[in-house]
Specification:
The chain is mostly helical and 85 residues long. It contains 4 helices and no strands. It has a domain of 56 residues. It is elongated, with a radius of gyration of 24 Å.
Length: 85
C-alpha cells in the first residue's frame, strides 16, 4: 500500500485579474484544475532550468578544438585498442 504524502507549496498571488484569468483559461483548456496546471507547469519549468544548467558550455577556443578533434580524430593508441577488444 502506498503511503504518499501531499506536500503543500507556496500560495500564488497574481498581480492582476488578467494574470489569474489567463492561468484559469489555460488550465481549463488542458482539462486541469488550476492547481494541477500550476504544478505541471512548474515541474516542467524546473526540469528545463536544471537541464539547461547541465548543458556543456565551451569557450570559443575549446569549441574550435573539439570541432577539429571530431573532424580529424587522432589514431587510436594501444590502450584504446585494448579497451575496444
Amino acid at each position: 500500500m502506498s503511503t504518499a504524502r501531499k506536500l503543500r507549496g507556496p500560495e500564488i498571488n497574481f498581480d492582476s485579474d488578467e494574470q489569474k484569468n489567463l492561468i484559469e483559461q489555460a488550465a481549463k483548456s488542458r482539462g486541469l484544475s488550476v492547481t494541477a496546471f500550476m504544478r505541471s507547469s512548474s515541474l516542467k519549468a524546473a526540469n528545463d532550468v536544471l537541464r539547461e544548467d547541465q548543458l556543456l558550455r565551451l569557450s570559443d577556443r575549446d569549441w574550435e578544438l573539439a570541432s577539429r578533434t571530431l573532424e580529424s580524430p587522432p589514431e587510436p593508441n594501444e590502450e584504446l585498442k585494448k579497451l575496444l577488444k
